[in-house]
Amino acid sequence: MHEAADGGLARIRVPGGSLTPAQVRALAESAALGDGGLELTSRANVQVRGLPTGAERELAARLREAGLLPSATHERVRNIIGSPSADGRELIDVRAVAAELDEALCADPALAGLPGRFLFAVDDGSGDVSSLGADVGLRALSADTAALLLADVDSGIRTPLWQAAGAAIAAAEAFLAEKAAQGCSAWRLAELDGGARRIAERLGGAAAASPVSAVPPTHAQVGRVLRPDGTVSAVAGAPLGRLTPEQVDIITAASEAAGELRLTPWRTVVLPGVRPDEADRWLPELGARGLLVDPASDGVGVTTCAGRPGCAKSLADVREDARRAAPAGALPVHWSGCGRRCGRPPGRVVEVLATGAGYEVGLDGATWTSAVDVDQVSAALGAARRNV
User: Fold this and answer.
1) ∠ CA(97), CA(103), CA(109), 5° rounding?
2) What is the CATH T-level fold of the domain 302-387, as seen in this structure?
3) Residue 370, phi then psi, degrees to nearest 5
4) How far apart are CA 187 and CA 128, in angstroms?
5) Which CATH entry fits the domain spanning 2-74+227-288: 2.30.300.10, 3.40.1190.20, 3.40.1710.10, 3.90.480.10?
6) Is 147 within 8 Å of 158 (Cβ atoms)?
7) What whole-number distance in Å separates Cα of residue 265 and Cα of residue 255?
8) Which of 105, 169, 198, 326 is the most buried (most CB within 10 A)?
9) pTM, to two decimals
10) Strand 302-304's sheet: what is its strand order?
11) Domain ranges across the chain
12) What is the pLDDT along the chain (388 residues), one digit of tens a residue?
């Protein structure tokens, strides 16, 4: 836990994004120790804000009891995103591989020294999380083989699925060794000199005969997602990544009915493989409490950092301004309260950056326009939708 402008902030890792109903309930109860809400992050983790001084002991006890804090030494490095597999077409059981990777990670004392930003990804074969900037990725090629990706680049290494977690661990160990050899303070694999190439060489990699093709980053998908077995996944988005106490309550109830909840890097929650009539029940209830369940909803694809008053570094109340501005359109939109751009999604994103005198709106590193107020931001976003 660390201090933010609005109190203590705790980040809870959810490797692979999968939660049991009991764990969802534990998160809801943990949220009550703070401001009652939950934040979903771009790494499919959860944050609790507004925690009073001294709450960390009670929070840790609750999380440990729920199986959400298995290692005090490795907690900050348990960053593992996984394909949500909402469409039921996954080649592998992402949850099982992520759990095996998490266990192996926590069992390796040296890997407690990984930077907190170091990220693993387990991809079901669709490519949906293979372009999200993970340092080490496993992408299924078949039901029993995976490709090892390094900083989203195919290393050429192929591994049997039963050895996939071990291959990812070896890559993380190679990162630490190469970092020490270069004498640098890199937080991410791509920050190393010749990062992906040097790590692949340490692992004995070579160019693959059929390299894994890159897949452009996808964005938030909400509503009903059909599955081959006749079931559906019900997917709901958290407006600006934030769940109110009432929304936490309804999601908890829905997860208990569905038997599982999956968090995604797009700040959505998935009730996987439910009957169509169950989806017809839960989606309207989720929508009635302000969750995004219609793909045409204005809030789909819009994200923000914490902004004022939660972050002392922020130059604006970006959440309130984002609610008043135009919807995302063809590309996602991310609002940042300062130049750190916390929470920015990967890939092409229209960026709205607070400057103290208003906002700058830009794309691909170039500023399109400077806006004094939210109305001008809305006009700029409208132009972006027409030109992208």
Assistant:
1) 135
2) Sulfite Reductase Hemoprotein; domain 1 (3.30.413)
3) -105, 135
4) 24
5) 3.90.480.10
6) yes
7) 18
8) 105
9) 0.94
10) 302-304, 333-336, 350-354, 359-363, 366-371
11) 2-74+227-288, 90-202, 302-387
12) 677 767 889 999 999 999 999 999 999 999 999 999 999 999 999 999 999 998 999 999 999 999 999 999 999 999 999 999 989 999 999 999 999 999 999 999 999 999 999 999 999 999 999 999 999 999 999 999 999 999 999 999 999 999 999 999 999 999 999 999 999 999 999 999 999 999 999 999 865 666 787 777 777 789 999 999 999 999 999 999 999 999 999 999 999 999 999 999 999 999 999 999 999 999 999 999 999 999 988 889 899 998 998 898 999 999 999 998 867 667 889 999 999 999 888 778 889 999 988 999 988 777 878 877 888 888 888 776 556 5
Q: Copy the structure tokens of residue 203.
A: 């692992």
Give the torsion sign (CA, 162, 124, 270, 68). positive
Phi-psi region of 233 (alpha: psi -120 to 50; beta: other; left: phi over 0): beta
Q: What are phi and psi of 296, to 5 degrees?
A: -90, 0
Please name the residue that has the structure tokens 């996954």: 90
Asked whether 291 and 237 are in contact (CB, 8 A), the reply is yes
Length of the chain: 388
